[in-house]
Amino acid sequence: MLLAQLAVLQTRLFGVEKVSKAPLTVAVVGAGLIAREEHLPAWTLFPQAQVLWLVEPQEPVRHRVQREFDIPRVAATVEPVLDDPRVKVVDICAPSGLHAPLAQQALEAGKHVLCEKPMALTAQQAWNLVGLARRKGLRLMIGHHLRFDPVARALRKALQEWGAGEFHAIRAQWIRQRRLPARPSFTQRSLAGGGVLLDLGVHMIDLAWWMAGSPRPLAASAAINNRLARRPDVKGQWGHWNPNTIEVEDFAWGQIRFENQLLLSLEVSWLALDPREEYQQVQWYGNRWGVLWPRGQLVAHRRGRPWAVQVPPAHSHKPHRLLIWEFAQALLHDIPEPIPPEQIATVTAMIEALYRSAQLGQEVPVPQPPEENLA
Length: 375
What we know:
Elements: H1 2-14, E1 24-29, H2 33-45, E2 49-55, H3 59-69, E3 73-75, H4 79-82, E4 89-92, H5 99-108, E5 112-116, H6 123-136, E6 140-143, H7 150-162, E7 167-176, H8 184-187, H9 189-192, H10 196-211, E8 217-225, E9 251-258, E10 263-269, E11 278-286, E12 290-293, E13 297-302, E14 305-310, H11 319-333, H12 341-360, E15 364-365
Parallel strand pairs: 1-2, 1-4, 2-3, 4-5, 5-6, 7-10
Antiparallel strand pairs: 7-11, 8-9, 8-15, 9-10, 11-12, 12-13, 13-14
């Protein structure tokens, strides 16, 4: 009933009536938390879309979610979706380590792709996806929802209107105290691909880099470990894991150097020894502005002393839903994706460099795109 009422409100918002033969027919791959709480409700509320398929290997979950969202067809694997000519969009909510191969299959089958982060596990995988999508004339977008956060959008708009100046340092933090997601899709490397750096770090890097104007990254250094996750006396709020077999990192620290002498410092953790249960902040230091997110503050120097202004949020929508609705509008109107996949391939390259630096114990260059992928 609630979804139906919200759908009526969304119909009024977009000014169109939902039709039985929706122009955007969608298959959602994966029925985990992100699909149930964000993607499926967003597609359900978009007047010109219909979810035709749900792909989920776990049978009880598959049928429960099918009933909850009234999805006509379900499958345990993606092949029936790829063979269905009615499916226009494949929305990938599967575990992180499966994103790139699933996206490649969907693009090769001629489907537009929306995919949860991370885009891929290596820069080469990411650039291959970009090239495949461009050759086939298909849209490919990765779900970096913080670009749709109402405060982030308000800050970016203010900087564009008032002049951002130059940034010389950024500090990005997402610290959790006892919130390791104790599920194989996050702790088993074959499914997760990585740990907290892929889960939280990728969001912080993307937001920090995007707000700073997306300069070219040059080199990275990092330290990662899972020392707390391996302690048998450390327990989490989100379930229990085996400390002897956990395969991914619970802590990551890193720095990325950019071509304009900008330096980004990153701190992310699922299990930090921190008095706060969860702490999230990005702070940009520049020659014209200091910027704080999610506090929504801009700090400048005025009449000889610091001066701060609070920026009101740009909108009231949930970021994931706005991301999906704007992607859908791009498909309907045949315009570019709101988040260019080339940019997220560069974010993937930064993540790859951080992992490699931690492995080697030294600073390493960030992989650069092949010439054909340079925008």
